[in-house]
């Protein structure tokens, strides 16, 4: 992850240590960009809301709509963030973003999108249901799709390079045991770039309730990702996995989510120790450790077009985690589902995460 200046975040550290009083009632910061706000407030003892921005909401770039953003990754090769739409009528693309690490956040589009192309050189269809993205150190990136499902590696310019192995039982029923629209929702690469983890949104047919499976890949001598084992994780009741992000060689943050018209959006952060990349166990059970229920965050002055218990909430599906002096910064990005009732929103959190920083 990119490191930004210490000054930008030192006041957050001071706030967590009690040296600075919090800004009252999430007042907009002076000179903030339109739609950008910042006002720290505790979501839990270890997670603090730093700010949010709706600057990307209902934007267009040429003929393309900036919407349906379901994956987020930091690309160290370019110093930009990569945002992945799940459905794109104009064709599958990846957006490049800057300004996420400003305080308050000022996300903006950094030029034309990267257009994803298949093995035949043609742009991939926009209905591929791409959900997860992970950036690699050489500038290439990995994309997971719920169609199939599939995990594919692309070159920096969007050219297809190869598909990663997916066991047959993970195929969508009736070919396998996965349910439609419930496959590889989360995707992350560890900080050293050698380990790739793909997370299922929901369980396979026959799994116990709340069971979610991860596929654990490791780079081989040729630089390609090879499947090593499966990981088994249990969510909170009623929750699906929306995204995962690694912050150490053996630790990840998990974003769990749910929605109902009566309660609105729910989002919970947890951590999991996924263990060493290699071991004697073919299937490893990982332990969930709750971090924060985001409904408990201060609203920061946010507004919502649909009912939410907390108007700061929306359909958060993209996430990055980055080490900073004294803690970690977590960026969440919401998928507006191309709906006028939903918002494309960036939410920035400050967290003290357990274990090594990686």
Give a short synopsis of this structure.
By secondary structure, this protein is mainly beta.
Description:
The protein has 358 residues and is mainly beta. It has one domain: Tachylectin-2, Chain A. Helices cover 3% and strands 44% of the residues. The protein contains one helix and 25 strands. It has one helix spanning 6-16; strands at residues 36-44, 47-53, 59-61, 64-66, 69-75, 80-85, 93-98, 108-109, 114-115, 130-135, 141-145, 150-154, 160-163, 184-189, 195-200, 211-219, 225-234, 240-248, 251-260, 264-273, 283-285, 288-293, 316-324, 327-334, 346-351. The strands form six sheets. Strands 1-2-25-24-23 form a five-stranded antiparallel beta sheet, with helices on one face. Strands 5, 6, 7, 8 and 9 form a five-stranded antiparallel beta sheet that branches. A five-stranded mixed beta sheet has the order 14-15-16-17-21, with no helix packed on it. Mean pLDDT is 87; it is low at 1-35. Residues 1-26 form the signal peptide. InterPro entries: Phytase-like_dom (IPR027372). This is Phytase-like domain-containing protein. Keywords: Signal.
